[in-house]
Structures are given as structure tokens and as C-alpha cells.
Specification:
single chain; alpha/beta; globular; binds nicotinamide-adenine-dinucleotide
């Protein structure tokens, strides 16, 4: 039985806590959050204790930490966990600064601890099946990728101010998908963007819609289109075009009920947002983490993947700001 501490009792922390306590080999011992009410409620729900960060790092019995606190806490907690020899599950992004993320990756490598970064889309049953079929050669050699990634609504400007911008906050997932699906690295990135949905986003120096074009080192092409507000809801789709055909993967609906009438045939909209759409992915991601710990095998989404996706986000940010093609 592995004792685990969870940092962050917010939106994603609650999801991870629920998945963590279902792992046969894990026990949630501590919940840490600067918001004592949030920490107390989540700890009570799962029979854990509220603790301060120092108590977690001083407790040699805690073998793993799950970092689901605000982005600006990730790097410090990764460094402390690595120094204490604890395995790490950390939400994206590793940090907002590439150099600091690289420092974290070096500390993890030096400590020899497992570190999974929360790119949950790779664990989604639909997207994982798409990737397995590409790897099995169904569409031959993949040549192009189109990623559609649209949110149902923008977060408040207060959140966006500290988010690191749309490329590091939102497209970081799409950059990870790009690397994973095409099994390649970017040679060049061109990103453009606009504020289309809400002028208050411009006031905090961010944008809410982007179009990114990537050429890979092996000459493959990818296009990513994103917007913070799609009127019809959360929309996450990929198309992979290869020498022998194309694979598509897309949205899930809450139910499969379809209404037919004289005017139209109507189905449910896609699941509301990431907490709903990726419910199964978050569960599979947590199970994978504890399996990797038990078997001593590498995690599927490593801190190096976190650093590489961040490098792409940084390149895209520079490309958008400076209106030029960037080599990451
Ligand atoms: N992979 C995904 O799909 C996904 C989805 C949502 C959020 N995230 C990431 O998860 C992180 C949390 O996002 P959220 O939406 O749950 O935010 P949130 O604001 O709902 O929760 C963050 C929590 O962290 C707490 N916190 C802040 N500083 C802390 C500290 N020093 N120690 C312990 N707790 C601290 C806050 O009090 C809050 O309760 C972010 O880094 C975000 O990028 C990932």
C-alpha cells in the first residue's frame, strides 16, 4: 500500500482524489491546500488528513505526491518531491517558464523518481484507440494531422491573467497530441491569433482564438485550430491523414438519444467540458501512474513530454507576438 499526498483541492484535485482512492495499491493520506476549507472538505470526503506541505515532505512514509494545485506551485513542489525521493504525478503545465521546467526535469532525472505529467488525452479510450490503429499501420505512414480544440466558454479574465497565455494554458494539450500522434518533433511553428469572443481577454494581453501550422522534422504537416468559445459546446476532434487513408476521432455525447421531427434530427451536444469529456481518461491516467510505480516501468506522459510541449507553446507565443515562423 502506497501512502500518497494530494496538493490542490480545486476542480481537478477533486477528480484526481476520487480516482486515487479507487486504486487498489494506494491510500490518500494527506490533502494540502492553502484554502483550508477546500482541503478540509476533500480530506473528510476521502478519510484523509489535512496537512501542510512541510509535513508531507518530512513524512518518509509518503511515497508519491499528486500535484493538482495552481500552475505557479508546480515547479517548486516537483523540486521538493524529487529531493525527497517521492514519485510525482503533476498536472500540466510543468511551469510557465521553459528554463524552470527543464530544471525540474533534470532534478527528476537525477533523483530517479517517476514523474507523470497530466496529458490526459493520451489516456482517453477514443484517442488511445486512434493512436493504436495508426501504430498498427491502418492508414500507412501518417502525413498530416488536423486538430480541432474548442472550449465552450472562456475562463474569467482574473484566471487568464496568470495562465501564461492561451498557448501555454490551452494549446499545451494540442502540442502534446501533435508530438504523440505524429511521433515526430516540430521543425517550424507559425501561430497566429485574435480576440474574437470577449474584449476583456485583450485587456489582459491574451487572445482567445488561434490557428497554428507546424512542419515536422520529417516534413509532415499539422494544423491546430482553437477558440475559447464554441456556441455549441466543447469540441475536440482529430483527423490523421496517411498514405492509405484517414482516421478520425471525436466528441462523446452524454446520451445517444436522437429526436426526429418534421424540422430536424437532433442529437445531444458534445459532453459539456473537460471534466465530463475526459472522465474516463483521468481515471485511466491515475491507474497507469500506480501501475507504473508498482511495476517500475516508465510512465506514458513523462516530464520530458511536459518540457517539449512547453517548448512548442513558447515557440507559438513568440510566433504570434512577432508574426514570424519560429524554430522551437
Ligand atoms: N489536465 C487537465 O485537463 C486539467 C484541467 C484543469 C486544470 N488543470 C491544471 O490543474 C491545475 C489546477 O487547476 P484547477 O482548475 O483545479 O484550479 P483550481 O483553482 O480549481 O484549484 C487549484 C487549487 O490549488 C490550491 N492552491 C494554490 N496554491 C497552493 C499551494 N501552494 N499549495 C496547495 N494548494 C494550493 C488553490 O487554493 C485551489 O484550491 C492547474 O495547473 C491547471 O493547469 C489541468
Amino acid at each position: 500500500m502506497i501512502d500518497v499526498a494530494l496538493f490542490g483541492a480545486g476542480r481537478i484535485g477533486k477528480i484526481h482524489a476520487g480516482n486515487l482512492v479507487r486504486q487498489p495499491g494506494a491510500r490518500l493520506k494527506y490533502v494540502v491546500d492553502v484554502d483550508a476549507v477546500a482541503a478540509g472538505a476533500l480530506a473528510e470526503q476521502h478519510g484523509a488528513n489535512v496537512a501542510a506541505a512541510d509535513a508531507v515532505f518530512d513524512d518518509a512514509g509518503v511515497k508519491a505526491v499528486v500535484i493538482a494545485s495552481s500552475t505557479d506551485t508546480h515547479a517548486d513542489l516537483i523540486l521538493r518531491a524529487a529531493a525527497a525521493g517521492k514519485a510525482i504525478f503533476c498536472e500540466k503545465p510543468v511551469d510557465l517558464a521553459l528554463e524552470r521546467a527543464r530544471t525540474c526535469a533534470a532534478a527528476v532525472a537525477k533523483a530517479g523518481v517517476q514523474c507523470l505529467i497530466g496529458f490526459q488525452r493520451r489516456y482517453d479510450p477514443t484517442f488511445a484507440a486512434l493512436k493504436a490503429r495508426i501504430d498498427a499501420g491502418e492508414i500507412g505512414d501518417p502525413e498530416m494531422l488536423v486538430v480541432t480544440s474548442r472550449d465552450p466558454g472562456a475562463p474569467p479574465a482574473e484566471y487568464l491573467k496568470r495562465s501564461g497565455g492561451i498557448f501555454k494554458d490551452m494549446l499545451i494539450h494540442d502540442f502534446d497530441i501533435f508530438r504523440w500522434i505524429l511521433d515526430d518533433e516540430a521543425e517550424s511553428v507559425y501561430a497566429t491569433g485574435s480576440v474574437l469572443t470577449d474584449p476583456s481577454i485583450a485587456a489582459v494581453g491574451d487572445i482567445d482564438a488561434t490557428a497554428v501550422t507546424i512542419r515536422t522534422q520529417r516534413g509532415r504537416l499539422a494544423q491546430i485550430n482553437t477558440i475559447r468559445r464554441a456556441a455549441y459546446g466543447y469540441d475536440q476532434r482529430f483527423e490523421v491523414i496517411g498514405t492509405k487513408g484517414m482516421l478520425q476521432a471525436g466528441n462523446h455525447k452524454p446520451t445517444e438519444v436522437v429526436a426526429w421531427n418534421a424540422a430536424a434530427i437532433a442529437a445531444d451536444k458534445p459532453e459539456h467540458f473537460f471534466l465530463e469529456r475526459y472522465r474516463a481518461a483521468y481515471a485511466a491516467e491515475m491507474a497507469h501512474f500506480f501501475e507504473a510505480l508498482a511495476r517500475g516501468t516508465p510512465v506514458r506522459t513523462s516530464i520530458d513530454d511536459g518540457v517539449k510541449a512547453l517548448a512548442l507553446a513558447e515557440a507559438a507565443t513568440a510566433s504570434w507576438r512577432e508574426k514570424r515562423i519560429v524554430t522551437p
